Amino acid sequence: MLLLQFSTSHYCRKARLALGYKGISYQVENLTPGLHTLKLKPLTGLTTVPVLLPQIEGQPQAIADSTEIFKYLEHNYPDPPLFFVDPHLQTQAALLEDWLDESIGTATRFVYYQFRSGDGKQIDPSLSSLLVIRVVCWQYQINTAAVELAKTRLKTAFEVLEVWKERLYLVGDRISIADIAAAALLSPLALIPEYRQSYPWIFDRTTEIHNICGELLPPGLGD
Ligand SMILES: N[C@@H](CCC(=O)N[C@@H](CS)C(=O)NCC(=O)O)C(=O)O
Fold it and tell me: Boundaries of each GST N-terminal domain copy (predicted)?
């Protein structure tokens, strides 16, 4: 099995956490941003990573989108489960996962790249890193007004995720796609002191989930 990814992408981290949780062995191929479309477009019709190539006869050649990767993994590798049999719990988990994916993961990207192009410049002051940050800010139209909206969405996310203060799991009594999505999609904020100080339980639980899944901790955690 091969995972096409950008090494720093939080959506790719989400796919790796699920693969790790299920104990699946896989390899990664790190694509070069910009050139990635040449490889991905013919394979999936889309331009985003992660893309999973099962490399198994009779199975799809390529699965694009982290949510679709979750579904593929659950169908083909049901044990240990990340979905629930109980339809009520599964709906809750799927709703949380979709909201984290479509709204919060994007908000994280906006706030993170604005930080990296300002106060967080020194994290990697190399020319290549600063260039990538500039391109990302341009590509996603990351500007002050959009970042303010993203911060408001993140505030709501931290309120919703207060559940982690009381309980180990966002839904039900075991880890699910909701926990994996939250641990991955908020992880870039670990580098931003304001978030680390205000929401320590988010980053404690993120660390635990990475350990459970056998995934290396994101920058800012564990160093
Ligand atoms: N909803 C998608 C989002 C994936 C996504 O936004 N990936 C970004 C990297 S973090 C990407 O590939 N961007 C490059 C592009 O859009 O061409 C998923 O869950 O897989």
Answer: 1-81
Per-residue pLDDT of the chain (223 residues; tens, 9 = 90+): 999 999 999 999 999 999 999 999 999 999 998 899 999 999 999 999 999 999 999 999 999 999 999 999 999 999 999 999 999 999 999 999 999 999 999 999 999 999 999 999 999 999 999 998 999 999 999 999 999 999 999 999 999 999 999 999 999 999 999 999 999 999 999 999 999 999 999 999 999 999 999 999 999 997 6
Closest-lying ligand 1 atom to the alpha carbon of residue 65: 20
Q: Which atom of ligand 1 is nearest to the CA of 37?
A: 17
Name the domain boundary from 47, 76, 105. Answer: 76
Residue type at 138 in one-letter notation: W
Atom of ligand 1 nearest to the CA of 10: 10
5 lines ligand 1 (CB under 6 A): no
Q: Is residue 223, in this structure, part of any structural domain at all?
A: no
How far is Cα 7 from Cα 23, in angstroms, rounded to an integer?
20
Asked if residue 220 is part of any domain, the answer here is no
- Residues 56, 99 within the same domain: no
Q: Which of 189, 209, 212 is nearest to 199 (CA)?
A: 189
The response to whether residue 97 sits with its C-beta less than 6 Å from ligand 1 reads: no
pTM: 0.97
Give the domain extent around 111.
87-213
User: What's the Rg (C-alpha) of the chain?
Assistant: 17
From 4, 6, 8, 11, give the residue whose CB has the most ligand 1 atoms within 8 Å, as the site to mutate.
11
Residue 218 lies in a domain: no
